[in-house]
Amino acid sequence: MSNTKLIIEERAANIGNFIVGRLLPFRQKRMVGPFIFIDHMGPVSMDDKENLDVAMHPHIGISTLTFLFEGAIVHRDSLGTEIEITPGAVNWMTAGRGVVHTERTPERLRNSNKKLHGLQIWVALPIKDEQCKPSFAHASASELPSWKYEGIRFKLIAGKAFGKESPIPVYSPLYFIEIKSAEEKTVAIGEYLFGESALYILEGSITSDGHTYEAKQLLVAKDSSLCAFTISANSTIYIFGGEPFPEERFIEWNFVASDKKLIEQAKEDWKNDKFPPVLNETVKIPLPEPKRFGR
Question: Phi then psi for 205, rounded to 5 degrees?
Fold first, then answer.
């Protein structure tokens, strides 16, 4: 019996600046543990006249996780943070009751050819922390726990697993793990996982119970404790998950909450300029108009 409960293919989604591959949410699986939103961003090549410029936009009820494979992004937020994220590092911004940020190509790259490739992830907050004070954390690539076992390279990007802990300050039991292998290897790590679990194939492939799965597929496990597979040579995968919340989460635009009233209030606050601004930024992304069907 295969341990794969659901296979999710990347779906193209237009985020304004370019097309991304959306993984979560999915109509048959809205969340995996506390993970509620995942976009595969790129790989995209930009010339000297093209840049990433995501103007001021708000969030509530989540922590955002940005993890790049290639390129660089300057993050600025309403907390006063200004930092450049580079490949292998982690930006972790906790919105709580409300934060605003921008994402832009660094000045040093704006007039040159460049590439951008990475993951944009939202992690929902438990109810007790949904309205917490916003905060920001950054971990360099060298700060993340990394190790090699039987020729397979592991990196713990966020959370706890394998008896190790990432320096990123998470709010609920979770894990986000990178696994790379230059050779075909058998991987059996179910004993180190918990809660709900999913596996995303960035490059290469894996084989499980006689089935082969390729890049840009997200596999949701029936039982995280049974996580075992063969990873092909030159493959990179990400395993993420954790304890699910007992309550439903609602998502609308950039807002996530357990109570729709919080989302409605956030919408009004954004329209009426009640969110804190980002220093030296003047352009804000307007609240999207509600979709209308028929006449």
Answer: -160, 165
Q: List all residues 6 or more positions away from 208 whose beta carbon is below 8 Å from its beta carbon.
A: 2, 3, 4, 219, 228, 229, 230
For the entire predicted model, the pTM comes to 0.90
User: What are the pLDDT digits (tens) for 43-101?
Assistant: 889 999 999 999 999 999 999 999 999 999 999 999 999 999 999 999 999 999 999 99
Cα 208 to Cα 230: distance, rounded to the nearest angstrom: 6
Kindly list the distances between the CA atom of residue 208 and the CA atoms of 43, 174, 177, 200, 281, in Å, as whole numbers in the listed order.
Answer: 27, 24, 19, 14, 49
